[in-house]
Amino acid sequence: MNQCVLRATTVGAAFAGAVIVAAEPAPDLKTIDPQIVETRTVNVTQTVSLADIPAGSKNVRLWVPVPTDSAWQRVLDCQVVSAPGTWKVVPQAEGRGAFIYVELKNPTAATAEVVVQCVVERKGVYFPLETAVTPGKLQPVLFEEALNWKSPLMEVDPRVQALADKACGNERDPAKQAILIMKAVADVADHYSKDSSKPKCGRGAASDCLDQGGGCCTDLHALFIAMARSRGVPARMQYGYRLLDAKAGQTFDPGYRCWVEYFIPGAGWVPTDVVAADNADAANPKRWASLSATRVWLWEGRSFELTPKASGPVHTMLCGWAEIDGKPVDVLPAADGSPSKLTRAVRFEVLKTDRDPSAPKLPE
């Protein structure tokens, strides 16, 4: 059994990945300070499996994302418990995370598994954007990717632009625009957990979300990102999964969960799960600019090239990426509903939770 221990570097997690716009803030810059509502530490074992490897295959390649340090997350310990063939841990370009890369030559088994065990600390955070006045202005040239109107599956088309303009009206404050856009997405689209008639799993596209009136979390977040970018608010996608307390001690498929980050001058990158906010009690004052501590972050963005390079850019990925003899394994269920050959299972325990008892529970 191959085993490798990865030691996380302690960083200023709250600011990891932030775009630095100046050596020091402008004298008149007033910060929008976040509230740390909760801190949660979990011990999680993650197993990513590739099934139905055809007999006679020559080369199997796997890219398996693993938890690493990021905004609001510290990995206190991480071990690769087992992996087939030859493998290494590969940081991805532009701080997108780290993946275990596996090459399996002439496989003799029909299944390949990568097992990782990590201790992860997450902070639940809230930004008071609805009452904030955004100080200063951002420089668009520094946010080129997060403002790209032509990103695959998140294009700014006339429908997206019209919906964003209707939602925001004459509002120009980026923080208030972000809140208005989130509420507009919640009004025009429902996650399948709220409306069972919506598709459960798709490619995650802004246009699909409008056509279907909702869908999966990536559909809704793709729409938010496109709308935010149309109004000059930088936005980007984050991927991982949720570990809800009710599932502790069980082995289960967490699926995947995405959320968004949008850049607000004076606050930095603000995380929000629009689906969780929409499903929360409307009386919760912390629903639209917050993210609970029940997440595990794995990677950032979409439509990017993996390292080492795969057969093409990855537009949609749920729990990793696999190729058999150069052909990608479909990450989405087949037309007949059968699941992808690439799946994930987790088992976790909560080691510690610190929470402000006076604060409303953050949407999960």
Secondary structure layout:
Layout: E1 4-6, E2 35-50, E3 59-66, E4 73-82, E5 86-91, E6 98-105, E7 112-126, H1 158-168, H2 174-188, E8 190-191, H3 206-212, E9 214-215, H4 217-230, E10 235-242, E11 257-264, E12 268-272, H5 274-279, E13 290-291, E14 295-300, E15 321-324, E16 327-328, E17 342-355
Parallel strand pairs: 8-9
Antiparallel strand pairs: 1-4, 2-7, 2-17, 3-6, 3-15, 4-7, 5-6, 7-13, 10-11, 10-14, 11-12, 15-16
Helix pairs in contact: 1-2, 1-4, 2-4, 3-4
Q: The biggest beta sheet, please?
A: 6 strands, antiparallel
Intertermini distance:
37 Å
Tell me the domain tally. 2
Tally of helical segments: 5
Can you give a write-up of this model?
The protein has 364 residues and is of the alpha+beta class. The chain folds into 2 domains: 4-21 and 30-123 and 299-353, Immunoglobulin-like; 125-247 and 259-295, C8orf32 fold, CATH 3.10.620. Helix 1 (158-168) packs across helix 2, helix 1 (158-168) crosses helix 4 and helix 3 (206-212) crosses helix 4. The strands form 4 sheets. Strands 1, 2, 4, 7, 13 and 17 form a 6-stranded antiparallel β-sheet that branches. A 5-stranded antiparallel β-sheet has the order 5-6-3-15-16, with no helix packed on it. It has a 4-stranded antiparallel β-sheet with strand order 12-11-10-14. The longest helix is centred in the middle third of the chain and has 15 residues, at 174-188. Strand 5 (86-91) and strand 6 form a beta hairpin. It has 5 helices and 17 strands.
